[in-house]
């Protein structure tokens, strides 16, 4: 399994392409849909779904373009099923980069172990940055896609709709730091880290 991190858009939001046997999961296509589509087609891989760690504007900007091009479904947590089309919820209303919207997700993502076209992973609810934030834990490969919950040396902001610092800290403690210290953490912004490094070095934990 290959994990490719692709920073997109003015905020450098990390989109992830999880590739296995010429199939791929696309996580958080936040912007630059044409660039993302070209990269996938050059590699001759077939996307099977778009997964959203949460529905903030910088994580959903290219959802419709990529969804329509590849004819694949979009998954989001039920707490944010209404956010894609509402700038006042997805946060784009509060920034000077234009209002961002996308059509509703095709499916509400289930918590627990998921088997999707040969990909096996666990969906963990990690609210605090936003109420519907989730993390995708690939146990066998020992990595987690954490969205804007946990960063290298930082944690997610909590000043947007539905944010709550206590909830965020509890999510990190219960759902992420409980993973093995060697577990690689792929965040929504910035570079990769590990659970063990953040336990020791993160000043917010």
Overall mean pLDDT score? 97
Category from helices, strands and their pairing: alpha/beta
The succession of helices and strands, N to C, reads EEEHEHHEHEEEEEEEHEEH
| Total count of helical runs of at least 4 residues | 6
Describe what is shown at a glance:
The chain has 205 residues and is an alpha/beta fold. It is built from 6 helices and 14 strands. The two termini are 30 Å apart.
Question: Could you please describe the fold and organization of this structure?
Answer:
There is one protein chain. The chain has six helices and 14 strands. With 205 residues, the chain is α/β, with parallel strands linked by helices. The chain has one domain (2-201): Metallo-beta-lactamase, Chain A. Strands 1-2-3-4-5-6 form a six-stranded mixed beta sheet, with helices on one face. Strands 7-8-9-10-13-14 form a six-stranded mixed beta sheet. A two-stranded antiparallel ribbon has the order 11-12.
Topology:
Layout (H helix, E strand, L loop, with lengths): L1 E7 L4 E8 L2 E5 L5 H10 L3 E6 L5 H4 L2 H8 L3 E3 L10 H4 L16 E2 L3 E5 L2 E7 L8 E5 L4 E5 L2 E2 L2 E2 L9 H12 L7 E4 L5 E2 H7 L4
Parallel strand pairs: 3-4, 4-5, 5-6, 10-13
Antiparallel strand pairs: 1-2, 2-3, 7-8, 8-9, 9-10, 11-12, 13-14
List keywords for this structure.
single chain, 205 residues, alpha/beta, Metallo-beta-lactamase, Chain A, six-stranded mixed beta sheet, 6 helices, 31% strand
């Amino acid at each position: 399994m290959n994990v490719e991190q692709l920073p997109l858009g003015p905020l450098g939001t990390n989109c992830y392409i999880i590739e296995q046997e010429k199939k791929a999961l696309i996580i958080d296509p936040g912007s630059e849909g044409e660039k993302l589509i070209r990269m996938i087609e050059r590699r001759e891989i077939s996307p099977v779904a778009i997964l959203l760690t949460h529905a903030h504007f910088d994580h959903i900007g290219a959802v419709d373009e990529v969804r329509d091009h590849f004819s694949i479904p979009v998954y989001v947590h039920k707490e944010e099923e209404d956010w894609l089309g509402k700038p006042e919820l997805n946060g784009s209303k509060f920034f000077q980069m234009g209002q961002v919207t996308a059509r509703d997700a095709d499916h509400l993502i289930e918590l627990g172990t998921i088997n999707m076209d040969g990909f096996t992973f666990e969906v963990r609810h990690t609210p605090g940055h936003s109420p519907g934030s989730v993390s995708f834990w690939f146990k066998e490969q020992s990595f987690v896609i954490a969205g804007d919950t946990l960063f290298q040396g930082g944690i997610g902001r909590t000043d947007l709709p539905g944010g709550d610092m206590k909830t965020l800290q509890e999510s990190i403690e219960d759902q992420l730091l409980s993973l093995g210290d060697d577990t690689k953490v792929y965040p929504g912004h910035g570079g990769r880290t590990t659970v063990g490094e953040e336990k020791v070095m993160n000043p917010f934990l």
